[in-house]
Amino acid sequence: MMDAPLLPLFILMTSLLAAPILFALPERSARLRTGINLSMAALKVALVGWLSLKVSQGVIYDLRFEMLPGLEFKLQADPLAILFIALSAVLWLITTVYSVGYLEHGPHRARFFGFFSLCVAATVGIAMSGNLFTFLLFYELLTLATYPLVIHRGDVFFFIDWGIYVIYTLAGGLVLLLGTLGLWVLAGTTDFVPGGVLADVVAETPLAAKLLFVVLIGALGVKAALFPFHAWLPIAMVAPAPVSALLHAVAVVKAGAFGIMRVVYEVFGIETAQALGVTVPLAVLAGITIIYGSLRAITQDDIKKRLAYSTVSQVSYITLGVALASPIAAIGALAHLIHQGLMKITMFMAAGNLAEGLGVKRVSQMDGVGRAMPGTMLAFSLAALGMIGLPPLAGFVSKWYLAQGGLEAGQDWVIALLLGSSLLNAIYFLPMLHRAWFCDAAAQRDGAPGRPRIGWMLAAPPITTAVLVLVAGGFANAPFSPLEWTRFIVAIEYQE
Amino acid sequence: MTPDLIYGVTGIAVFGIGLVGALCAQERLRRVLALKLCSVGAGFLLVVGAWREPPDTPDPVPHALVITGIVVMVSATAVALALIRRLQTLEAEDDA
Amino acid sequence: MTPDLDPMILAIFLPLFGAIAAFMLPRAAALIGLVTLAMTTGAVFWLAQRVLASGAVIVPLGGWGAPLGIDLRADGLSVAMLLLTSAVGFLVSVAALDSLKGADQARQRQYFWPLWLLLLTGMNGVYLSTDIFNLYVMIEVIALAAVGLTVLSGTKAALRAGLEYMYASILGALLFLMGVGFVYMQAGRLDFAGLIAAEPSAAMSAALALMIVGLLLKTALFPLHFWLPAAHANATAPASALLSGLVVKAALYIFLRLTTYMPLPDEILITLIGALGAGAVLWGGLQALRAERLKLLVAWSTVVQIGLIFIAFARAGQVGLAESWKAAALLILAHGVAKAAMFLAAGRIKDEIGHDRIRDLDRAPVRPTLAQFTFALAAISLIGLPPSLGFIGKWSLMEGAMAAGYWHWVAITMIGTFMSVAYFSRVLSAFLRFDRVRAPVGEHQGWALADAAPLTLALTAIGLGLMAAPILRFIEIGYPFGAAL
Amino acid sequence: MLELFAATLITLGTVFFIAGTVGLLRFPDIYCRLHALTKADGLGLALVAFGVAILAATPGAAFRIALIWFFIAVSSATCGHLIARHARLAEGGRHD
Amino acid sequence: MTDPLVIFDLLLALAIVALAIAALSVRDLYAMIVLFVIFGLLSALAWVRLSAPDVALAEAAIGTGVTGALLLKTLHHLRFASGQRSACMTPAIPVPTGVMLANAAFCGLITLGLAVAFLGAPAAGPGFDALVAGAMPASGVDHPVTGVLLNFRAYDTLMEVVVLLAAVVAVWQIERGLSDAPSPEMGEVWQGFARLALPAIVVVGTYLLWVGAEAPGGAFQGGAVLAAVGLLLLLTRAYVPQPHHRGIARGAFVLGTGVFALVALLVAGGGRVAFEYPLDHAKTLILLIEGMVTISIAVTLAALFHGREPVALRKEVRHDT
């Protein structure tokens, strides 16, 4: 098989180069646009498959380009990166299909798909960043690319809230810039190295190192929707459904969580971070976010808002797993990165289908939708049960490892936290399922619902991802499953 | 007391007077004039710097520089005055 | 007789002959202008290659040599400025072909070219000069040509702004001239080497103070910026692009050179200049937030950017490292490219929509998409988002400030960046909104050839960020910031 | 002897100048002032020029001084005329 | 015993300062210009006292003469345009007296500082004296100021001519072919005077140019005096610029710059750099340049006085918003 050292770059380019082409296409050439979109997404999946094969064979990819003296733009494909790229590549393909269906007659599709591509390019770039500087580059690109996507359907009322979104995300970016600079000044490098680069600094000036940790985690916490920086996420749910799906499952919040992983594992190093005494506070913060997000979710009537608060809660599982500083919890965290993505994207696409097909946007309108849209609601239900943590679904696997990790780390409160959280999950998800399947529709909607008008491009994606949720949970121990891959990563990060 | 001292102080005074005018004058024409005074002040300084106690002849280089400065200043004045004239025409048209 | 051509001489004389030709033959002015710019750019590339090969080069004009004669000298920094000027100038010229094509713009077309080529002569002259009196004459060439360009449209607002600009320009130049007088009195010579050799004294301090204030007035550092927003906002688009992107840089460049050869005597003064820069960042940012018109907003952003460059300067002066000047140089280059792109894009938007009121941008029936996209790209560089050159400049600025523990400059830069995000997103979100009043929104217009030049500039502003390392190495050729001449 | 004569002439000329200046400052209206100025200055200048010409060593210099006198006389006469004319026209304008 | 000339110098200096103050504070703009012209002439006198006759000539002819004429023309235009004979032109927002005083005090402080710096500077500092003296034999001319202007620092002088060119291009650009204030009717005496003066001025101007090589005078002074011819012609309306004269006018504007730059460029070669005249031809080349530059200066200054480009009058499209 041919060896291609530029493979990571090609993967990046599949979406980065697609963007200007999509921008330039006239609005009306929809077929060509769809063709480019889908072929690029498929190409990316194929390339990522090839890349992960090569990486598992031990090939090392390391692309460097000098930006400033000593400061490099660096792409690498380590197993952790592969995990995240694989997630985004697969979900991009699925979401692209979904968005083509979703926006079939919408305005400004050229713009939408252009930014959509950029958004994925940024996510892939974040995944493959070999140092914090490169990470910062793509992190800002991600902020810029999501900006027009989120407001794609915005109207004037929305723009009042819009300010909050801009301020949160851009302030996060700025603080990350500050943190990157601080790292560069303190350590003289921004490279991601398993085991961290700050051991000396921590030994010499622990205060500066602590400050740096706070700055970096604070900056990334904005995107990861860590309490108290989560306020933008429920606002961003006004975005079109595919955007919300991508935002919550892959792009934005995951970029933040992924960044926290990189910072804890490869900037500070898990042992150094532990020695610094910053992991426990982070774990506590994550715990607070988990509970807070769930509590807020219960009271939301808007489906997408409820899902958004659920994301606030669920993404913090990842942070929690990282902060627990135990290999088993780390496996749980990494697995949850994938599993939460699969589940949440299913739910958002299903919610989008409800809104498109039936005009249902609130929980209180959900009576009987299960009978009207059985496929969609089946997928939704599977994902919801997974979220709650029902075995053998994907969510159960990650929660199981997290709990074990908590025990291993001697943080017994984690068990209680997880149980409580699962309970809360059940409290806000089960009523939705109950309404969908067991209540009568006629009570609420005028007349008979009739057949909802949604095409296969809307119906198929959530079902596909729901199947993936099942597979990821049921075949968790199979080779090349996400769980197996995370074990491989954790072995590297914990330098075992 | 030698001429260079007397005229040097004169030049600086003229420059200062021009500066006051450039900052405070209200009429457009007067501001142009104030700037011209500044340039004369700067010219004084250079000419004074070139002066040598007789019978030595003065340094010709600053003289050349001042001549250049004078020509440059008349060019700038002409442009400023053209702007003033044009602006006045437009403003008068609008008043009418 | 075949004359020996030297790229430095050509860089100054080609635009001069071009200006003469364009003035003599008004009908062919545009063609002459473009050819001249292409040739000048070629000469500058030739010079760049020569400098790359053999370091700084000097031409003693008339064969006399400084201090009696005048030397032209090209090192990395000056060639970088020349490259910026001619390359940006060329693209702005291409854009000018389109933006001055109206039937009622015959006059503007006729005069744009000679004035712009004279302006180019002056700017190239500044970047190659090593003599402070020569610099005085050059900034006057620039001033007259620039005022002529400012009032090209002939509107009352432009004329008023042009007159204020003229006053500020003359006053700045005269302050500089007075400083030249003091240098002569004390040092007896006017070349840069003479400045280095001069003993510190009251006269030299006075000279430095006068020249610096004059230059700050010309480069519009807060609070001497009063003339800039109106002048840049009311000029026609290509003129605005030239004025904002290139012309203010000439005075800034002289300032950098001067303070290299005559270091400011006191840290307090350096901090003061930095504080003025901070004032520019904050005040300009506030005004940009309040601006009602697109071009005015862009003009205020120039005030902000100049403040930022002076913060870089202040930090450089305090750290006292040659390294530290680079941030200022990078920011100058970044701003030159991005601001030219932004003004051209703003001009295109105004042309297409018919007005440039920010409040009503989203009500327009047409969407000049490509121009808006260009504007956004330029904004990315001006805000300092990666990977643009503006980002690299800001990064170097903050890196140095942080390493030296000057947290106040870091804080101001952060605040400035945040404000720039705020005022640019006023415009950008107006571009993205589309159903605010449910007005019929036309199909976006797709490609227009007129957008090519600004788009190229904006992409360059972003792309140059990837070239920062070679750019920095190039700027250092000939030690422009070292003591050695 | 000749020098004494020249000095007398120059002094006399200066006296006329002073008288003219006093007239310029003291006379009530523009015509009287003009009268004082042109008459006194014309004569004063002639006397001074003559005195200087006597002192001048060469005939060439004397010729040039004569030329200067001639041109100043002509132009000051023209100036006086123009000022008076302008003043009269302005007055006429005011009466209309 | 004090030199009587010191008293003269002191009186002259006082008069210059007093006139400067008076010009800026007198209410009537016409009086302001008159005071300025006197100020300029006295400054020129002061420069003669400082043994700078070239500068004095230039200041008298260009700095005072041409500038004064430009100011008067503008004043005439302003009074005509505003349709009144009163002096107040500017619809200015009155600046508060406090601000004015603060400004004045600020400038006073600056001036004081400059004076201190000046008094601290060396009385007769180092200069170019020796360098110029050493290089004069190779310059091709005998008058040092001309040597500096047209040889040692010829580049500056070229750029100075470029400034003049830029000015005339800008003025033509700014002042469009709108109807101007009619020039005042000056009567027969004036016409006669002009006829008498014209040839004399031409002779003087040419003489100044020619003599520049060895004595005070030169292209700029000569050009300015010749420009006076143009002014007289324009004022007596013996010559009225026509649209079809524009080509010739343009040619005259660029003549000096063009020839100067071409010569500077063409002499380079064979080891010589630009502006390095071969010694044998230096005098000829300098005279050629001076001649062309004089023509350009004369025509340009006259054109600056005339102002607007002579275009066919037509309704102009305006785009005020």
SS-derived structural category of chain E: mainly alpha
Structural class of chain C: mainly alpha
- State the separation between the terminal residues of chain E, measured CA to CA: 70 Å
Note the main sheet of chain C. 2 strands, antiparallel
Strand content of chain C: under 5%
Which percent range fits the helix content of chain E?
A: 55-70%
Order of helices and strands of chain E: HHHHHHHHHHH
Main β-sheet, spatial strand arrangement of chain C = 1-2
Largest sheet of chain E: none
Shape of chain C: globular
Beginning-to-end CA distance, first to last residue of chain C: 34 Å
User: What Rg of chain E, in angstroms, do the CA atoms define?
Assistant: 23 Å
Catalogue the unreliable spans of chain C.
436-441
| Count of DSSP-assigned helices of chain C | 18
Q: Would you count the extended β strands of chain E for me?
A: 0
- Total E-strand runs of chain C: 2
Defining key terms:
heteropentamer; A: 496 residues; mainly alpha; two-stranded antiparallel sheet; 22 helices; E: 321 residues; 3 domains; disordered C terminus
Can you put this structure into words, describing what you see?
The complex is a heteropentamer of chains A (496), B (96), C (485), D (96) and E (321). Chain A has helices spanning 7-16, 18-24, 30-56, 79-102, 109-128, 132-150, 158-187, 199-204, 206-223, 232-235, 241-249, 252-268, 270-276, 279-298, 303-323, 327-358, 369-372, 374-388, 394-408, 413-438, 456-474, 482-493; strands at 62-68, 71-76. Chain A is mainly alpha-helical. Chain A has a domain at 307-496. Chain A starts with 6 loop residues before the first helix and ends with a helix. The model of chain A has no long low-confidence stretch (mean pLDDT 81). Chain B has helices spanning 3-24, 28-50, 60-95. The longest helix of chain B has 36 residues, at 60-95. Chain B is elongated. By secondary structure, chain D is mainly alpha-helical. Chain D has one domain (2-95). Helices cover 92% and strands 0% of the residues of chain D. Chain D starts with a helix and ends with a helix. The model of chain E is unreliable at 85-89 and 315-321 (pLDDT under 50). Chain E folds into 3 domains: 1-89; 93-125; 144-313, no CATH class. Chain E contains 11 helices and no strands. At the B-C interface, helix 2 and helix 3 of B face helix 5 and helix 6 of C.
Short description:
With 96 residues, chain D is mainly α. Chain D has helices at residues 2-26, 30-55, 59-95. Chain E is 69% helix and 0% strand.
Helix-strand layout with pairing:
The complex is a heteropentamer of chains A (about 500), B (about 100), C (about 475), D (about 100) and E (about 325).
Chain B: H1 3-24, H2 28-50, H3 60-95
Chain C: H1 7-24, H2 29-54, E1 57-61, E2 70-74, H3 76-99, H4 106-128, H5 132-150, H6 156-187, H7 192-197, H8 202-219, H9 228-234, H10 237-261, H11 267-290, H12 294-319, H13 322-353, H14 369-383, H15 389-403, H16 407-432, H17 452-463, H18 468-475
Helix pairs in contact in C: 1-2, 1-4, 2-3, 2-4, 3-4, 3-10, 3-13, 3-17, 3-18, 4-5, 4-10, 5-6, 5-10, 6-8, 6-9, 8-10, 9-10, 9-12, 10-13, 11-12, 11-16, 12-13, 12-15, 12-16, 13-14, 13-15, 13-17, 14-16, 14-17, 15-16
Chain E: H1 4-25, H2 29-49, H3 53-81, H4 97-120, H5 129-135, H6 144-152, H7 154-174, H8 187-211, H9 219-235, H10 246-266, H11 282-306
Helix pairs in contact in E: 1-2, 2-3, 3-9, 6-7, 7-10, 7-11, 8-9, 9-11, 10-11
